[in-house]
């Protein structure tokens, strides 16, 4: 591999990490509250509210079922409006975030559902408000599971970020596509793939470890 | 500690000593067109400072009943009054305030698994808006009361069942409640640990004048610490009264069933009848079986006999098989009656 390709790969690793980190962060800022709402408004839960639950649930599932590549293209006008451009690493963060929000929301919801109903009953019997119960009982109890879910979500975002290369999103995906696929440079292709695999494994491992440390029972 | 409880302004004290007054409480669960009646016209009063037992077989409705006391369950009809106030009339915010004065412990402990023991005990204080430092101080006092001071930094998963229930009791007491509801609190524990937990509850009842309501399916729990007991059978109140009285002379079928669990008495003759004799310390001193044989010549078969201490008074009971012949039987019954013994027939 020539020097400039090595340089490009180094740069690509950095870009991929940047896209993944920002998109994951933003996706959680929106997705975590959405997941909490999905959980709390479901039947038999603290703030049971059928209309809210159905509307948010349907929107979440529609967004989740769109293939990411289609979402990338559909969101181009929105991306341009938000970042002023539809090309580049910063621009790619927008569709990555939008694509990850519903996945995060459902994952959060699933984690919260694992919390023992007895904990909620105990909190209710203590005279806690629904918000207090969510913040001080349900979320702390679900923390290890939320961390484990986060590891899976971040790894998914990383995988999606490679696809962003298709629309000029930069990162390892773009390098794999340009040098590995269009120019038949198998060594570049495999290097990027191996790097992506390593990154996913590191994220998964770190998330799992954090969850294990946090989990007290 | 006084600042924690703000319920006083919500309570209308009419001078009676009733904490809870249940008036014809019914609960019907409607599920896809099928109705299930969990409680039917249940009325009784729980008085301040007593340990009140609610006993029944599993599925009798006692868990639903205890949940009407802090409105974790809404009643379908009838009313539950707490210090004179109908719980059903309370708005969400008022209800939350009232609940802070009605602590509850559970069979499954329901502790936060991801929080340390002391953080668990602090929870009710946090809800009441008590500051961090005061919270910790009170929580430490509570852990001392239940004898777990050295475990404050442990996580519940590392504690034994008995210790977990102690933490739950410390948590329940933290916000200085007026009542403690115990929902099968000892059912997951072995007999020795159950004894220790009951002793602790009794100590708290005496020292802090805390009213305690105990839900259980075990007669031994009621015997051991309750002052009065309500027997729930298939959603109905079968009997309510002093524990001593219910034990001495159970009136309802459900009460008899609980007082002699799983009637194991097997008469030798199909035609013979079983009776139960309950006697207190006084009559227990007389050798009345021997006297019976000596004076009437009739023989009875002793199927079971034991003595128990109920509420500090020793008393005994004996299950006898009477002679198959009706006349002989009458003689025996007459003899026991003349001795002033309380006898009742054993249902089969």
Account of the 3D structure:
The complex is a heterodimer of chains A (217) and B (348). With 217 residues, chain A is mainly alpha-helical. Chain A has one domain: MetI-like (MetI-like fold). Chain A has nine helices and no strands. In chain A, helix 1 runs antiparallel to helix 7, helix 2 crosses helix 5 and helix 8 runs antiparallel to helix 9. Chain A is elongated and about 70 Å long. With 348 residues, chain B is of the alpha/beta class. Chain B has two domains: 250 residues, Rossmann fold (3-Layer(aba) Sandwich), CATH 3.40.50; 86 residues, Alpha-Beta Plaits, CATH 3.30.70. Chain B has a six-stranded mixed β-sheet with strand order 6-7-8-3-9-10, sandwiched between helices. The interface between A and B is medium-sized, with 23 and 29 residues.
Rg of chain A is: 20 Å
Structural class of chain A: mainly alpha
Could you please say which CATH topology of chain A applies here?
MetI-like fold
CATH architecture of chain A: Orthogonal Bundle
In a few lines, what is going on in this structure?
By secondary structure, chain A is an all-alpha fold. Chain A has helices at 3-40, 50-65, 68-74, 76-83, 89-113, 117-125, 130-163, 171-182, 186-214.
């Amino acid at each position: 591999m020539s020097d400039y390709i090595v340089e490009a790969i180094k740069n690509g690793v950095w870009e991929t990490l940047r896209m993944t980190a920002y998109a994951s962060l933003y996706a959680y800022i929106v997705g975590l509250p959405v997941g909490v709402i999905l959980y709390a408004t479901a039947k038999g839960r603290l703030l049971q509210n059928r209309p809210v639950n159905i509307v948010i649930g349907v929107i979440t599932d529609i967004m989740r079922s769109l293939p990411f590549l289609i979402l990338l293209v559909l969101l181009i006008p929105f991306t341009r409006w938000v970042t002023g451009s539809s090309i580049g690493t910063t621009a790619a963060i927008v569709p990555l975030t939008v694509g990850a929000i519903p996945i995060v929301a459902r994952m959060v919801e699933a984690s919260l559902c694992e919390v023992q109903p007895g904990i909620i009953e105990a909190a209710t019997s203590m005279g806690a408000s629904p918000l207090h119960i969510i913040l001080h009982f349900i979320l702390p109890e679900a923390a290890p599971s939320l961390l484990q879910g986060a590891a899976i979500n971040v790894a998914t975002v990383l995988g999606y970020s490679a696809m962003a290369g298709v629309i000029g999103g930069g990162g390892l995906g773009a390098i794999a596509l340009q040098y590995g696929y269009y120019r038949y440079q198998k060594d570049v292709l495999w290097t990027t793939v191996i790097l992506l695999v390593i990154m996913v494994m590191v994220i998964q491992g770190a998330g799992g470890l954090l969850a294990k440390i946090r989990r007290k029972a | 500690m006084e600042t924690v409880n703000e319920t006083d302004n919500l309570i209308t004290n009419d001078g009676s000593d009733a904490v809870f007054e249940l008036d014809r409480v019914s609960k019907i669960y409607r599920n896809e067109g099928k109705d299930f009646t969990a409680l039917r016209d249940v009325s009784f009063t729980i008085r301040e400072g007593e340990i009140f037992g609610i006993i029944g077989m599993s599925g009798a409705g006692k868990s639903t009943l205890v949940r009407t006391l802090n409105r974790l369950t809404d009643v379908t009809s009838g009313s539950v009054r707490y210090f004179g106030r109908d719980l059903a009339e309370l708005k969400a915010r008022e209800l939350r305030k009232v609940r802070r004065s009605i602590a509850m412990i559970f069979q499954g402990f329901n502790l936060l698994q991801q929080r340390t023991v002391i953080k668990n005990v602090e929870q009710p204080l946090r809800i009441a808006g008590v500051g961090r430092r005061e919270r910790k101080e009170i929580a430490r006092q509570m852990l001392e009361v239940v004898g777990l001071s050295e475990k404050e930094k442990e996580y519940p998963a590392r504690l034994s069942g008995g210790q977990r229930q102690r933490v739950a009791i410390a948590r329940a007491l933290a916000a200085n409640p007026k009542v403690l509801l115990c929902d099968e609190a000892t059912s997951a524990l072995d007999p020795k640990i159950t004894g220790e937990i009951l002793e602790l509850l009794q100590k708290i009842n005496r020292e802090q004048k805390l009213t305690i309501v105990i839900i259980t399916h075990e007669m031994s729990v009621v015997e051991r610490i309750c002052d009065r007991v309500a027997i729930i059978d298939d959603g109905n109140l079968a009997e309510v009264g002093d524990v001593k009285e219910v034990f001495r002379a159970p009136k309802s079928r459900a009460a008899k069933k609980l007082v002699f669990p799983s009637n194991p008495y097997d008469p030798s003759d199909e035609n013979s009848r079983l009776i139960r004799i309950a006697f207190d310390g006084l009559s227990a001193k007389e050798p009345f079986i021997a006297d019976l044989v000596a004076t009437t010549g009739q023989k009875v078969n002793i199927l079971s006999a034991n003595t128990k201490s109920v509420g500090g008074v020793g008393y005994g009971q004996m299950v006898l098989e009477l002679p198959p012949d009706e006349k002989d039987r009458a003689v025996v019954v007459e003899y026991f009656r003349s001795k002033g013994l309380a006898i009742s027939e054993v249902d089969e």
